[in-house]
Structure formats: structure tokens, C-alpha cells
Automatic annotation (TrEMBL):
The lineage of its organism: Bacteria, Pseudomonadati, Pseudomonadota, Alphaproteobacteria, Rhodospirillales. Residues 137-237 form the OmpR/PhoB-type domain. InterPro entries: CheY-like_superfamily, OmpR/PhoB-type_DNA-bd, Sig_transdc_resp-reg_C-effctor, Sig_transdc_resp-reg_receiver, WalR-like, WH-like_DNA-bd_sf. Keywords: DNA-binding, Phosphoprotein, Transcription, Transcription regulation, Two-component regulatory system. This is Response regulator. The modification 4-aspartylphosphate is found at residue 55. Pfam families: Response_reg (PF00072), Trans_reg_C (PF00486). CDD domains: trans_reg_C. Residues 6-121 form the Response regulatory domain. Residues 137-237 bind DNA.
Length: 246
């Protein structure tokens, strides 16, 4: 049987939940509804979904808190699309920093929401199976560094954790999923930010620079993330899975 994508909609507005649910179901998706973080947690405690549509402005734990919670737990790899009534650039940046894959401001057309959901799911599955290594184990080793993909910690050779922002973590994950392959700026934008890439077009180089600092790379002659002139960047070393999930 063909897989039917399962979407969890978390929104305190009952009308929006039902309207969106009806539209997505008519377009071939399976849909589960949650009115708040408590219902979301209750469902995800026993089930998995392919994508979460998460409203930012909700009573109790808001969408930013819930997104951060998802990224810190066993659903860390589940794509998240954020919704909000505020068309505020800071909200978009905060949502993406928390680990959201895309952002859509209310009011929105159901057709656009469906298009974004399909685009996110397509990006999530675009890597060849042999490159999707980061979801197969808890620790990824490269050089003297290790990335704990469950706790989302970068560990140096002494086991000391180095803090990463959400954007830095996502960028490092992309490099670790594509070791020793040149990635263009467009590819990096698409794999880390998706449709919100326009917010970061001028900051890809800055983000790479920040990540190099975290890895204590020499700015002039980096050994981990190298610049390939006129092409992009490459993680210039192999990646090994050092501890598999139980």
C-alpha cells in the first residue's frame, strides 16, 4: 500500500483546524487535530506523523515553545511548519531558529498551505538513503568532533559541549548528511531554510563563518568546512556513525 502522508495540525482556533483539515483530506493527506500542546504531546507520545503544522499564538505553551520541545525529543527530525497571525519578521526568524522548516502568516490560502506542506515533505525526502546518515545514529564523528543528533549537542575531543544556534545546527546537519560533497549556496539555503531562504540569502557566508568558529577552524585555512571557489562549500572529511540507536 502506498504511504499516505500524515499531518498533525496544532491550532487553538477550531474553525481553522476544521477548514484546513477538510481541505488537506480532500487532497489525499491523513490529518490529526490538536487544540494545544497538551493534546499534541498526548498524540505524539504513541504515534508519529510526517509533518506538524504548528500555530505560534496559542494559550499556554505557544508554538515556539512547542517547536523547541519537538526538536529536543524523539520527534526532532519531524518537519514543522509554523503558523501565526502576526506577519512579523522577528517571529519568522525566531521560528526558524527554533527549528521550524517553514513559516506561513495568517490569513493564508489553503492551497498555499498544501503547496508548502508538499514542498517540505519533498525536501525531507530528497536525500538519497545512503546519505541520510544522521537519523540512523546518535553520534556522528568527523575529525575530532562529534554531533549528538538526539540531544543536538556538538562535542569536542574532550567531550565538552559547544552551544549551537538552531540555524547553526541545521547547517552542520546538512554538511554531515553530505560529507565531502560540494554544496552551492542555493542548496544550503534550500536544505536549511526552504521557502524562507529569502530572509537569509545574504547571510549564508556569515552562518558558515559562525559554524567555523564553533569548530575552531582557522579562518584563512579552514580544515573542516572548505570554500570551493565559484561553487560553494564542502565538509572536507568523512563522517562516521559511532553509536547506533537502540
Amino acid at each position: 500500500m502506498d504511504h499516505i502522508d500524515h499531518v498533525l495540525i496544532v491550532d487553538d482556533d477550531r474553525d481553522i483546524r476544521e477548514l484546513v483539515s477538510g481541505y488537506l483530506k480532500r487532497n489525499g493527506l491523513r490529518v490529526t487535530l490538536a487544540a494545544d500542546g497538551r493534546q499534541m504531546r498526548s498524540f505524539l507520545e504513541h504515534d508519529r506523523v510526517d509533518l506538524v503544522v504548528l500555530d505560534i499564538m496559542m494559550p499556554g505553551d505557544d508554538g515556539l515553545v512547542l517547536c523547541r520541545e519537538l526538536r529536543a525529543g524523539r520527534h526532532a527530525a519531524t518537519p514543522v511548519l509554523m503558523l501565526t497571525a502576526r506577519n512579523d519578521e522577528m517571529d519568522r526568524i525566531l521560528g526558524l531558529e527554533m527549528g521550524a522548516d517553514d513559516y506561513l502568516a495568517k490569513p493564508f490560502a489553503a492551497r498555499e498551505l498544501l503547496a508548502r506542506i508538499k514542498a517540505i515533505l519533498r525536501r525531507a525526502r530528497m536525500l538519497p538513503p545512503n546519505l541520510q546518515i544522521s537519523e540512523a545514529g546518535q553520534l556522528l564523528s568527523f575529525g575530532n568532533w562529534r554531533l549528538d543528533t538526539i540531544a543536538r549537542h556538538l562535542l569536542d575531543g574532550d567531550g565538552t559541549a559547544v552551544a549551537l544556534s538552531g540555524a547553526e545546527y541545521r547547517l552542520l546537519r546538512v554538511f554531515l548528511d553530505h560529507p565531502q560533497r560540494v554544496l552551492s549556496r542555493d542548496q544550503l539555503l534550500n536544505l536549511t531554510q526552504g521557502r524562507e531562504a529569502e530572509l537569509f540569502e545574504r547571510s549564508v557566508d556569515l552562518l558558515v563563518s559562525r559554524l567555523r568558529q564553533r569548530l575552531r577552524d582557522d579562518a584563512r585555512e579552514p580544515s573542516h568546512i572548505k570554500t570551493v571557489r565559484n561553487e560553494g562549500y564542502v565538509l572536507a572529511m568523512p563522517v562516521e556513525i559511532t553509536r547506533a540507536r537502540p
